[in-house]
Amino acid sequence: MFNKAINIINSLIDFIFPKICIVTNEKLVESNSNPYVKDEIIQNLEKLSLSELSELKVKINNPNCFSLYRFKNNSPIQTIIHYIKYNGFKNLGIVLGELIGKELLASNYSFLLDYNYIIPIPLHKSKIRERGYNQSKYIAIGINKHFNLMFNDNSFIRKKDTLSQTKLSVEERHENLKDAFAVIPEYCKTLKDKKIILVDDVITTGATMKEAIKTLTRAGISDIFVISAALTVFD
Fold first, then answer.
1. Pairwise CA distance, residues 167 & 150, whole Å
2. Same domain for 75 and 188?
3. What is the CA radius of gyration of the chain?
4. CA–centroid distance for 3 within its chain
5. What is the number of domains present in the chain?
6. Which of 71, 96, 130, 147 has the fewest CB atoms found within 10 Å of its own CB?
7. CA 159 to CA 180: how far, in whole Å?
8. 161 and 141, same structural domain?
9. Which residues of 199-228 are buried (b: 16+ CB within 10 A; e: fewer)?
10. Co-location of 112 and 133 in the same domain
């Protein structure tokens, strides 16, 4: 009886406030796999080519990396990530992370199951206060549903409140991020010689990730595998 009442209430809510696709503004069908984006849109998101993945390795100066989608202006993936970052849709980050995790296991990356930790790229505490959460954390949570590694978002911090990278040159981005990150001293022994997955939402020039890798390497992490949801591409 109780479950029946709950179902009726949920049906009324869906009728009054129907779930709408954030990309197309169309009503989502009941069978859609998630309450945010049409399955058809997700299935047709542009994926990176092998040559673009090779470019990512150069950008971050690390051969151990993976990114799934092509991030372009006015693209569906841009809309999705914008909603995750700025519109409070953190659970959409988990959905996106699950898609990435599924792709990794289907693409010969099952060796990541042997890694120790999964860690999101940190935001400065002022950004957390402003936004309410770290979007990369939720993407990492989604990825980790497929890998079940130890999740750690306390050991690695952004100690410097950096300027927005958007309008900076490559050189300015690197200078802006210099010494921006730190490993909390009490975690140094815990992470030393461990293998970690480092997760970000979008990589553009690679400056943020390079600085993060540099900091973690200095702390004695033996193996860092980088995952981003998307890589900015310029056609």
1. 36
2. yes
3. 19
4. 35
5. 2
6. 130
7. 6
8. yes
9. bbbbbbbbbbbbbbbebbeebebeebbbbb
10. yes
Provide the 10 A C-beta neighbour count for residue 160.
15
* pLDDT tens digit sequence for 150-192: 999 999 999 987 756 666 666 776 677 888 999 999 999 999 9
pLDDT(100) > 50: yes
Residues 129 and 191 in one domain: yes
Residues 29 and 104 in one domain: no
Q: Which domain holds residue 155?
A: 50-232
* 14 lies in the same domain as 98: no
**CA terminus-to-terminus distance, the chain:** 57
Q: Which two tokens stand for residue 80?
A: 């999705």
Q: Do 37 and 95 lie in a common domain?
A: no
Q: Residue 165: which residues within 8 A CB-CB, separation 6 or more?
A: 173, 176, 177, 204, 205, 207, 208
Contact criterion met (CB below 8 Å) for 36 and 83? yes
Query: Does the pTM exceed 0.85?
Result: yes
Q: What residues contact residue 136 under an 8 Å CB cut-off, 6+ apart?
A: 93, 120, 121, 123, 199, 200, 201
